[in-house]
Specification:
This protein is an alpha+beta fold. It has one domain (about 1-140). The chain has two helices and nine strands. The longest helix is centred in the first third of the chain and has 23 residues, at about 1-25.
Length: about 140
């Protein structure tokens, strides 16, 4: 009987972890329509100041696309991929879809906050960014 209760507890715990994980990954979505990039969360949409098409930047070694600081989740969105000729000083390919513009979306207590657009900073959605870039966006937003 004890073994049966232990298995049920493990199963319930696993289900709870999976439910929290799936909800945590569904905070925002990014889409490009009508020459506008929009970010949506909980039914509210905000227009980004990026040139479409836009892409959510992945976090290279995580199973989600944000970094969390305290109660805030920081997402980074890349604008339109730049021509390869403009990216010659970096070791990237056209398949990396690298952009020279990005904007952060910070979600805190169900509200979205948008950063200023960063220009001329290499942002490759498929390669991802280092955690310090996310932290920099977060720190800059918190000082405003």
């Amino acid at each position: 009987m004890v073994l049966g209760n232990y298995s049920v507890i493990r199963l319930v715990s696993l289900a709870a972890i999976l439910a929290v994980t799936s909800c945590a990954q569904a905070d925002i979505s990014v889409n490009s329509a009508n020459d506008v990039c929009k970010v949506t969360s909980d039914g509210k949409s905000y227009e980004l100041q990026l040139t479409p098409p836009c892409s959510l930047v992945k976090v290279d070694y995580k199973d989600h696309d944000y970094f969390q600081y305290y109660d805030s989740k920081v997402y980074i969105v890349a604008g339109k991929p730049a021509p390869l000729a403009q990216l010659a000083k970096w070791s990237v390919t056209e398949a990396d879809n690298c952009s020279l513009q990005s904007q952060a979306v910070i979600v805190n207590a169900g509200k979205m906050h948008l950063s200023d657009v960063r220009q001329d900073a290499l942002t490759c959605p498929e390669i991802g960014l280092d955690e310090k870039v996310y932290r920099d966006y977060f720190d800059n937003m918190m000082t405003k």
